[in-house]
Amino acid sequence: MVENEVLVLREVPADPGVWLIIPEDVRKKTDVRGFVFTYVDDFLITADAKVASAVAASVAGQWKCSPAQTLSEKEFIEFTGMRISREQNGIMISQKHYTETLLK
Predict the structure, then answer these.
(1) Is the distance from CB of 58 to CB of 65 less than 8 angstroms?
(2) Rounded to whole angstroms, how far apart are CA atoms 68 and 83?
(3) Cβ atoms within 10 A of the Cβ of 67, count?
(4) What element of type H or E holds 18?
(5) How far is CA 79 from CA 1, 24, 27, 45, in A?
(6) Is the domain of 49 the same as that of 99?
(7) Residue range of the domain that includes 80
(8) Mind listing the pLDDT tens digit of every residue in the chain (104 residues)?
(9) Do 5 and 23 meet the contact criterion of CB atoms below 8 Å apart?
(10) Which site among 32, 64, 70, 94 is 20 to 30 Å from 88 CA-CA?
(11) Do the Cβ atoms of 69 and 52 come closer than 8 Å?
């Protein structure tokens, strides 16, 4: 629940690894609050901080999880071999580290 609103996850029919974060209220089902991307036992939440925190807490209440990481200008995150970082001009997604690891 975020700000007195119950949010639910709805699977995207075109990609079972992508979930919409939407209000439970049927009248607001097109009001997307964020996305959850899943791959095997890894997931990435893209939403504002309150929504992302609530979704991460809900998932951690169901399964054993590592502590959630938050993307910031000082900290990067990794998801499925991609390093995601916040830069001055936006968000950078790179597989350089993953590729270098494969080549060793």
Answers:
(1) no
(2) 15
(3) 7
(4) strand 15-23
(5) 26, 28, 33, 10
(6) no
(7) 69-104
(8) 677 889 999 999 999 999 999 998 866 667 899 999 999 989 999 999 999 999 999 999 998 988 888 888 888 999 988 999 998 889 999 998 888 888 88
(9) yes
(10) 32
(11) no
